């Protein structure tokens, strides 16, 4: 069936509908005047009048005599985050990788997924902690958490930060239910719809999804092997005066890049000159062989907020993360956490993590995982290179390899075809704000062990 071409009037009506659906226009907001909207859309005023009249007939807007047209709020569709921002093919939008990772079963091989396989995690230590918790006081099993119940874990985190040279106090740490909740709370505290937020290009796809939900403008800065391109970073700050910059300073997702000291210095100087806040997502810190430069440590948590999580190294199932920031911000974030979730992680969760961290087995587990990852990284890089798939960088740790495909191969098309053969890939543009990473794939080396993955890639790339 041929698609009917839209008239100019219908196009204008759609523009208004999309603005209402995306909450750019909210109930009771005034629409642009007929003359202004006509000029913006390069149409005649009579076309705008017709579009407004028809939207009024549908009950979506209402005219107020002498004052203009207003949004009624009738039939407001639920917010669809995936539809906010530029429309992209579903196989490269920011939800594609998470959905394929979370919704497919164990029969699917997942070199594109973002966590370690279960047999790489410290399950014995977790079981032991669960057994011990089953014998604890009733209150641990039934009560809401409180400041006291999270103190032991906050103290453990303090000790770990102090080892890195970041000396802070327990009132500078808020436990959260995940790294994702940590970022969400920060966005709630600091952002308003329409603000500008800087991310790396490419960046972790869920930064984009979450920021879309907060209805902010997302600007990407190209990443280099030593962090963001500092010249572009400084230019972008001057041009857009963003409120926030969200980044992974070490073992960046998806590229594996880590900040050089020079880049760290320039970023902090530029941020300070513009009064911009930085969220340093340090979720991969425990995979590092030794500590690379960290913005939070250099700045002492003045304009940098550090967040982290136990999902990648201990368990994604227990759901626990944290925010380290200045005490005033922690107070505001804690209020927001009460307002939106009536507290942080379950007391059972924090008790479990304390047991695993305090027992010494965690450090041993990390040593083993780091060693296994080094071997897997070298092996997978070699096998991919043999297929013409080239790592952009050999990261100093972690489980990601950001790889460039042979010329002419599009990662979204390859990902779709591999999915038909039950192999889930992470196509580059799912991470890219500028959609300039069609030639890239992100591999998780711990999940890229099965020979079927390499055989299928070889066959389909032909
Ligand atoms: C860079 C980054 N930040 C945050 C998260 C979210 O982790 P959590 O499970 O703690 O929400 C992930 C998960 O993949 C991630 O890669």
Automatic annotation (TrEMBL):
Keywords: Aminotransferase, DNA-binding, Pyridoxal phosphate, Transcription, Transcription regulation, Transferase. Gene3D superfamilies: Aspartate Aminotransferase, domain 1, Type I PLP-dependent aspartate aminotransferase-like (Major domain), Winged helix-like DNA-binding domain superfamily/Winged helix DNA-binding domain. PROSITE patterns: HTH_GNTR (PS50949). Residues 6-74 form the HTH gntR-type domain. GO terms for molecular function: transaminase activity. InterPro entries: Aminotransferase_I/II_large (IPR004839), HTH_trans_reg/aminotransferase (IPR051446), PyrdxlP-dep_Trfase (IPR015424), PyrdxlP-dep_Trfase_major (IPR015421), PyrdxlP-dep_Trfase_small (IPR015422), Tscrpt_reg_HTH_GntR (IPR000524), WH-like_DNA-bd_sf (IPR036388), WH_DNA-bd_sf (IPR036390). In the C-terminal section; belongs to the class-I pyridoxal-phosphate-dependent aminotransferase family. This is PLP-dependent aminotransferase family protein. It comes from Paenochrobactrum glaciei. The lineage of its organism: Bacteria, Pseudomonadati, Pseudomonadota, Alphaproteobacteria, Hyphomicrobiales.
């Amino acid at each position: 069936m041929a698609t009917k071409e839209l008239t100019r009037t219908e196009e204008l009506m759609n523009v208004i509908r999309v603005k209402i659906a995306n909450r750019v226009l909210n109930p009771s907001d005034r629409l642009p005047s007929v003359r202004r909207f006509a000029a913006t859309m390069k149409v005649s005023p009579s076309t705008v009048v017709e579009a407004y009249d028809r939207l009024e007939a549908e009950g979506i807007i209402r005219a107020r005599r002498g004052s203009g047209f207003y949004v009624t709020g009738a039939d407001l569709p639920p917010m669809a985050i995936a539809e906010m921002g530029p429309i992209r093919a579903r196989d490269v939008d920011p939800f594609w990788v998470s959905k394929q990772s979370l919704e497919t079963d164990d029969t699917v091989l997942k070199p594109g997924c973002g966590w370690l396989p279960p047999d790489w995690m410290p399950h014995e230590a977790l079981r032991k902690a669960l057994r011990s918790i089953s014998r604890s006081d009733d209150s641990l099993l039934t009560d809401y958490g409180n400041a006291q119940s999270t103190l032991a874990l906050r103290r453990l985190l303090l000790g770990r930060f102090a080892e890195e040279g970041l000396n802070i106090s327990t009132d500078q740490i808020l436990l959260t239910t995940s790294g994702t909740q940590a970022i969400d709370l920060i966005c709630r505290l600091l952002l308003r719809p329409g603000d500008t937020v800087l991310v790396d290009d490419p960046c972790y796809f869920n930064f984009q999804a979450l920021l879309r939900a907060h209805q902010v403008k997302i600007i990407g800065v190209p990443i280099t092997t030593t962090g963001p391109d500092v010249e572009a970073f400084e230019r972008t700050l001057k041009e857009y005066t963003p409120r926030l910059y969200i980044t992974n300073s070490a073992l960046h997702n998806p590229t594996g890049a880590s900040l050089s000291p020079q880049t760290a210095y320039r970023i902090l100087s530029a941020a300070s000159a513009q009064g911009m806040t930085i969220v340093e997502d340090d979720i991969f810190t425990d995979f590092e062989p030794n500590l690379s430069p960290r913005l939070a440590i250099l700045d002492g948590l003045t304009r940098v907020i550090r967040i982290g999580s136990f999902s990648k190294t201990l368990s994604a199932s227990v759901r626990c993360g944290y925010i380290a920031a200045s005490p005033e911000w922690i107070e505001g974030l804690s209020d927001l956490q009460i307002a939106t979730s009536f507290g942080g992680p379950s007391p059972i969760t924090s008790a479990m993590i304390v047991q695993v961290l305090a027992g010494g087995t965690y450090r041993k587990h990390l040593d083993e995982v780091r060693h296994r990852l080094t071997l897997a990284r070298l092996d997978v890089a070699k096998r991919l290179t043999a297929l013409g798939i080239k790592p952009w960088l050999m990261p100093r740790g972690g489980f990601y390899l950001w790889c460039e495909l042979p010329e002419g191969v599009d990662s979204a098309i390859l990902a779709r075809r591999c999915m038909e053969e039950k192999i889930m890939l992470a196509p580059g543009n799912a991470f890219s704000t500028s959609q300039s990473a069609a030639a890239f794939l992100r591999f998780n080396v711990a999940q890229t062990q099965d020979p079927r993955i390499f055989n299928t890639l070889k066959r389909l790339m032909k």
